[in-house]
Design a protein that fits this description.
11 helices; 3-stranded antiparallel beta sheet; binds 5-S-methyl-1-O-phosphono-5-thio-D-ribulose; 2 domains
């Protein structure tokens, strides 16, 4: 059993993360004492995955509250929180977590109280994430039958959350209920979260997993080897699901083969105010395609396009599995919004939304 992906160490007074860039070769921990180190860890995907980014946003504000020295303490806290939210734009959880903790912290009367409130709220957010993933697992497990083989993409497991996982949480819960479930993990180029992280964590838990390249998905579906597809999400809007690049292709293939395509995500991943057209998709360094682990794998300087996420239209989604139950599109957005704590933290224009909206 691994430790939490991201947690606060009371002993050291820092955030501790599992360095996901070291996996699967090494299970290394990093202690983070300053916001610059956290921003860098987020940018380099040392901590990654929407729910884990939500926790990182929360702990980031707690770190800021402890380390800011400026005279205009409150203004600086707000300004630095805005910078933290901008490090990765697509997963809405980062902004959500940072805003939630900032909102609570700013109710403090003085610096000491702000520090205490920020840390307590960040810890509560992380604990809630674990409970939400467990609930997602319980709801989703009912959709799986013993003997099913589930295809997944990227990593939506315990390493993308604080613990347990969303898509992989559903599989873990089904196995906990005694069901026999096998997994096909897509490699997930270019940064290989599927082969490096999903395969690692499933093998740690002795859950049967077979690795394929992304381009093999259609072939294995056509061969009848996939019963269900379950993926996570970085942002869910009314008309689409944003998730790791390649997810859309899997949804099209699943539809063509009559295979259910499920998305598992907590309500903190929902953006109730925007549509697909409004959302910014993060574009990463083209070098990620031209080099692998320092080795050149394409002609130097070849133009490369490297979007980190894509949008899957809701009509390709069979159902969305949340901590509040399983919803078939069209999603009851108004009802979910009312029952979601997210409502309190919605800002006029959250990060990752195009200007002019
Ligand atoms: O770029 P990453 O590795 O942060 O992308 C992660 C994903 O796309 C996950 O599928 C998503 O965040 C859901 S994690 C439960």
């Amino acid at each position: 059993m691994l430790m939490r992906t991201i947690d606060w160490s009371d002993e050291k007074g820092c955030v501790t993360i599992i360095d996901q860039t070291a996996l699967p070769l090494k299970l290394a921990l990093i202690d983070i004492y300053h916001i610059n180190a956290l921003n860098d860890a987020i940018l380099r995907l040392k901590v990654r995955g929407a729910p884990a980014l939500g926790a990182a946003g929360g702990f980031g504000v707690a770190l800021l509250a402890r380390t800011i020295k400026a005279e205009d303490y409150r203004e600086e806290l707000i300004k630095e929180t805005e910078s933290l939210k901008r490090v990765r734009p697509t997963a809405v959880n980062l902004s959500w977590g940072a805003d939630r903790v900032l909102t609570k912290a700013l109710t403090g009367r003085d610096r000491a109280e702000i520090e205490t409130l920020a840390l307590a709220e960040a810890k509560a957010l992380a604990d809630e994430d674990v409970a939400q993933c467990r609930a997602i697992g319980e709801h989703g497990a009912a959709l799986l039958r013993s003997g099913d083989t589930v295809m997944t993409h990227c990593n939506a497991g315990r390493l993308a959350c604080v613990d347990w996982g969303t898509a992989l949480g559903v599989i873990r819960s089904a196995i906990e209920q005694g069901k026999d479930i096998k997994v096909i993990s897509c490699e997930t180029r270019p940064l290989n979260q599927g082969s490096r992280i999903t395969c690692f964590e499933l093998m740690e838990d002795r859950i049967p997993v077979t690795l394929i390249t992304d381009s093999m998905a259609g072939h294995v579906m056509r061969q009848g080897k996939v019963d269900k597809v379950i993926v996570g999400a970085d942002r869910i809007v009314e008309d689409a699901v944003f998730n790791k690049i390649g997810t859309y292709s899997h949804s099209v293939l699943a539809k063509a083969h009559g295979i259910p395509f499920y998305v598992a995500a907590p309500l903190s991943t929902f953006d109730f105010r925007h549509a697909e057209k409004d959302v910014v998709i993060e574009e990463r360094d083209p070098e990620e395609l031209r080099r692998w682990n320092g080795t050149q794998i394409a002609p130097a300087g070849v133009p490369a396009f490297n979007p980190a996420f894509d949008a899957t239209p809701m009509e390709n989604v069979t159902a969305v599995i949340t901590e509040q139950g399983v919803f078939k599109p069209p999603l009851p957005f108004t009802g979910l919004k009312k029952s979601s704590s997210l409502k309190r933290y919605i800002k006029d224009k959250p990060e990752g939304v195009r200007d002019g909206i």
